[in-house]
């Protein structure tokens, strides 16, 4: 403002100079800038320059303003002082050295034309005038976007946003912009409604409302308004913040899919049918399943409240079929639909056939065939009772079956293309036959009159019974398909000679085995053995010395033939040792028994069981 005043002052000074040079001498002239601009609330300086010809002076200056073509006095200046002032300006006027009149605390009411009227004694009167412009810089405009959603299908031109600029002067203009580009009013497409209100303060409030049709793309458009105003001869602008709007548009695309992947759905799964549409707001979704004769069953009640998701829990093969999702746009009532085929994979009717059908003779074989129904390719696997894989493929041939290898077999049916799809069917492969004795405590070394345990272990199907041909206390135990019978007897002379027979029988036959009872050696025989051992040692010593002697004489060469010669008698000697050893073993066993009594035979026999079993 100050710059403007200065510029005006310069222009005035120059004009004045001209007057003084060319016409000053002749008459009185008053020079004033045409316009003075001042901000509301500031101080306006009204310059009034004149020169009285012949170095005379003025007698009085009258200041007026113009109100409806008539003059209203502001003040009177005499002798460099303000003498009278109107009530409107009381306390707001001051006079400069150069006789300029300053008005402070300017308001919009001060925006008038002021006249400086100069009165002289010698050269009469003269006057000029200045227009006082009061301005108020507008504040950043406020913008409010339409809060309701705007439909792309709206029949009237919908309101987008409103822009307001309060208390400025002179009233600014408002323009509208979308994504930075100015919007021009366009018939039936873009409309702008502006209002201008003059407040009691004299300042203006202007507002502008933008109406425009929107498209889907406008969901991401950004709108703003711009204020345009003049400040000291220059165009200025102020921009509002940018706003976006909610655009309602019907769905253009939709799709329906099965989660998880439709190829992997199996019985028992939880499946989701997901329906998606790109409309805003989301349309209303409905789900249907095709029943017989093209009837559609409404499944909407199973779907989550308008999320477009249909939950199917624990699907069965009956859940397979054609499903349809329908969308209804509430805005324009348009419908769209998509369908999807749900395939629930399953395995059912798993059957195992046996050829021949049970039971099988021991040593025989059986062919197991497994079959099942499924819409997908199947793989078969066989397992025994211990869940050990015993074969692949839908047939399993079991050869040379024994009581021990019989039992339950499982056919495990899987679908390699559908993870986790599996069914199992068990079949009992029964083997029957006459019993078999698997362990018996024979031979058993005993002493006469001693009490011993005779043990006989057998297997057979049907379940066998065990009989002994001697009297005693029999005790039976069952373990792992086997029956074990213990007979506690006192060893009589007869028993020692004849032995005992264990007879195991079932409906298919019987088997019997004799337990050989061997008398343990008497101390006499022990003496014989000791003598034999001593003789043996003596023979070895003798042989050793003979060999040594021959060697010293050099009759035996140190070659192979010589070695062979020696080996032979040594082999013989070995034989003798082995025989003795075996004798000694039984003797030691006898000694052991002597020491431990009846318990010995138990330990000994259990060792034998292990041998027999394996
Ligand atoms: C008023 O002042 C201006 C600027 O000095 C001048 O150009 C103009 O001629 C003056 N008007 C009168 C009527 O003296
Ligand atoms: C405002 O608009 C009017 C009419 O179009 C124009 O004369 C004036 O110069 C404009 N003002 C601004 C500050 O752009
Ligand atoms: C404007 O856009 C922002 C992000 O781009 C979004 O979060 C907001 O919801 C939008 N407002 C309206 C009214 O659409
Ligand atoms: C059958 O099994 C028994 C006992 O395991 C065996 O001794 C026999 O050699 C087997 N026979 C055949 C033909 O495999
Ligand atoms: C075999 O399966 C049947 C039931 O299928 C069961 O009762 C039987 O105990 C099983 N046999 C074995 C030896 O596990
Ligand atoms: C039979 O005798 C053996 C050895 O004495 C013993 O280990 C086993 O427990 C006995 N069994 C029964 C059923 O008494």
Short summary:
With 614 residues, the chain is of the alpha+beta class. The protein is built from 5 helices and 45 strands.
Overview of this protein structure:
The structure is a single chain. This protein has 614 residues and is α+β, with helices and mostly antiparallel strands. It folds into six domains: 28-135, Immunoglobulin-like (Sandwich), CATH 2.60.40; 142-248, Immunoglobulin-like; 254-342, Immunoglobulins (Immunoglobulin-like, Sandwich); 348-429, Immunoglobulin-like, CATH 2.60.40; 433-519, Immunoglobulins (Immunoglobulin-like, Sandwich); 532-608, no CATH class. It has five helices and 45 strands. The model is unreliable at 1-25 and 557-614 (pLDDT under 50). It is elongated, with a radius of gyration of 63 Å. One 2-acetamido-2-deoxy-beta-D-glucopyranose binds at residues 172-173, 228-230.
Strand content: 35-45%
Major β-sheet annotation: 6 strands, mixed
Instruction: Kindly provide the name of the CATH class of the largest domain.
Output: Mainly Beta
Shape label: elongated
Q: Could you state the CATH homologous superfamily of the largest domain?
A: Immunoglobulins
The neighbouring-strand order within the major sheet is 2-11-10-5-6-7
CATH architecture of the largest domain: Sandwich
Measured between the Cα atoms of the first and last residue, the distance is 120 Å
Which structural class do you get from the secondary structure elements? alpha+beta
What small ligands are held by the chains?
A: 2-acetamido-2-deoxy-beta-D-glucopyranose
Helix content: 10-25%
Which fold name is given in CATH as the topology of the largest domain?
Immunoglobulin-like
Unreliable parts = 1-25, 557-614
Average residue-wise pLDDT: 83
Evaluate the radius of gyration.
Answer: 63 Å
- How many helices? The count is 5
Number of domains: 6
Strand segment tally: 45
